[in-house]
Specification:
Elements: H1 3-17, H2 23-37, H3 44-54, E1 57-58, H4 62-72, H5 92-106, H6 112-126, E2 130-132, E3 138-146, E4 151-157, E5 166-171, E6 175-176, E7 189-194, E8 197-202, E9 207-210
Parallel strand pairs: 1-2
Antiparallel strand pairs: 2-3, 3-4, 4-5, 6-9, 7-8, 8-9
């Protein structure tokens, strides 16, 4: 890391540890850190989203593999489970482990609250990203939130009227407005802070959740 990059890293360290960021700051951080973790197999999941924010239309990666496998397997479930054959999403513990390892390597303190807020920002950034490969497999990512479980999720779907939604990743312990339990969130969302609390609203300024 050169001297200028060291200064940039110091800026993001202070911003992240003080919990003053919103999703656009996380977009910048992912773009910055991407080149330093690109070849490191420890950060497969973080790299997936760093690549995603760099290229919102993708033809490869973990999400693309899941979409392709689900389509090729006709959305068949593994026997005696509700899991789609060939579809392997993100485990919450694996996700947290990568962020803690990233913090150790780059001297950034990521506690559970910071990781939870970063995750919310990344899920918001991922909303509506598109995937299509050379063979015509295609899908998009949608954002979902469920008040009864306090979970946010990223779902993949082909985007047609009767397309199935499959959970790719989820994260828990958010305060979510119950109005969104019975319907998917189709409007574009955005993170913002109010009195230091990270929240999410839609484009009509309806507050959906807070950390």
């Amino acid at each position: 890391m050169d001297l200028k990059a060291t200064v940039i890293l110091k800026y993001y360290k202070k911003l992240l540890e003080s919990r003053k960021f919103v999703e656009f700051d996380i977009l910048g951080f992912l773009i910055f850190i991407r080149s330093f973790i690109h070849k490191n197999q420890k950060y497969t999941l973080i790299r997936e989203f760093a690549d995603l924010v760099a290229h919102r239309e993708r033809n490869q990666g973990i999400v693309m593999d899941c979409i392709r496998n689900a389509i090729d397997n006709n959305y068949l479930c593994i026997k005696n489970t509700n899991k789609i054959q060939g579809y392997t999403g993100i485990n919450e513990n694996d996700w947290k482990k990568e962020w803690n390892e990233l913090g150790d390597e780059f001297n950034i303190i990521f506690d559970d609250n910071i990781i939870k807020e970063i995750t919310l920002c990344i899920y918001s950034l991922a909303q509506k990203t598109a995937y299509i490969d050379k063979k015509g497999h295609k899908g998009i990512i949608e954002f979902d939130a469920i008040s009864r479980s306090g979970e946010i999720a990223l779902l993949t779907t082909e985007g047609q009227k009767d397309s199935l939604f499959i959970c790719f990743a989820k994260y828990s312990k958010y305060n979510i407005v119950s109005d969104y339990d019975s319907k998917s969130i189709q409007d574009v969302i955005i993170t913002y802070r109010e009195n230091g609390i990270l929240k999410v609203k839609d484009v009509s300024n309806n507050v959906i959740l807070e950390v």
